Amino acid sequence: MKNVCIALLILISLSASAQNMLKEVFAPLQSIKYSWQKPVEKEGKNLLSAVLFQGQGYDMEYVQVSACEVRSSKKKTELQIPSDEEHLIIIKSGHLNISFGDSTWSLTPGSIALLMPDEKFTIQNPAKDPGRYYLMKYRSKSAHSPERGKASGGSFVREWNRLTFRKHDRGGVRSYFEIGTPMSKRFEMHVTTLNAGLKSHDPHTHRAEEIILMLEDTGGPKAKTEMLIGDSSFKGEAGDLYYVGSNLLHGIRNTGEGPCSYFAFQFE
What we know:
Layout: H1 2-22, E1 33-34, E2 41-44, E3 47-55, E4 60-70, E5 77-80, E6 86-93, E7 96-100, E8 103-107, E9 112-115, E10 120-124, E11 131-140, H2 146-151, E12 156-158, E13 165-168, E14 171-181, E15 184-194, E16 209-214, E17 224-229, E18 232-237, E19 241-244, E20 250-254, E21 260-267
């Protein structure tokens, strides 16, 4: 009888511990600049990563952005998205093949893949040089909505070379998507090209959280920006990211000698 009681106490303790792990609370994300880091931690034989930042957002109980690298290989790495997360892949450099469903895409820099909960996919680098990408994982504070995922058509890819560039007086823009997803009521993404010396718009606020990610230089003058976030200003270059929390005053300006391009994506 004594042994049974001890066993029950151990099970209760383990159960409580498991629940605490599941209810892990992350520190709030800092609204600052983050920079690309060399991927070092092995996620698989051909896959390396390094966490750039992680924490709790306004609508998301967990947001993590990592720097990832896929080594050259003839083999595909098989992966699956957890049932309570979505993943966004943004190609930084090199070429990567991504497959899910019945389709395969050869993605170049600037291309993205948005992968829904439970999605099974493969990733492969067929080239000699490393394939590098940003990986954003996020989990909503509220119950996820499979209906929104179905309405958006499930997981999808946007290829840089297939996107229309629309010029305007400050540069131009490429629109990627604006949809609802299982983890987000609204997720919007675009790439802005901003001419030298100009600001994208006057400093402003909005409820949605936002990430600004500067693209690689394209052979011209080195890309440089200055980002106002709240009461602070941050200087960034190619590969840097700015995280802006909900309702924080912010605005970006091109401080370089030539045009610069950057992702801007909002989620709530």
